[in-house]
Amino acid sequence: MADNYKVIDATNAAIDMRSTEVNTVQVPHYIVELASAPIMGRDAAGVAAAALSATPTSIKYGVTVRCMAASPEEVYIGDATVTTLTGYPLYPGNSVFLAVSDLNACYIISASGTGTFAFLGS
Question: Which of 23, 80, 113, 117 is 20–30 Å from 71 (CA)?
């Protein structure tokens, strides 16, 4: 017999759980919700920081950002205050996964505005 219930974590957020019987033992496990569809894009990073999405765009698991292999320069990723001095550098061909819930929380910039990147979120 399976039972659904909610567990409150340390941040007071409710987590959906399920208990399933396996060999007469109740085994608790998370209920995993899948993303409806991937969200992706490609662009050039400007000399001013810009969000991956101009409007709030919710994602469930996070986003991978890749500096394109053919990019003439590295790009830098961070929050709204990112600069080429403070951002996380992505060199051509490199990528990073960010566990965020909204694409417009991630900002990107390049020194001369020619750095190209792609992203894939779910």
Answer: 80
